[in-house]
Amino acid sequence: MSEEINIGVGKGISLPELPSSDMKFRTNGFRLGLEPEMIMHSKLVDGRNYLLMKWKDVEEPSYVKASVANKKCPSLVIDFYQKHLTWSNL
Question: Of 28, 60, 62, 82, which one has the greatest count of Cβ atoms within 10 A?
Answer without folding.
Answer: 62
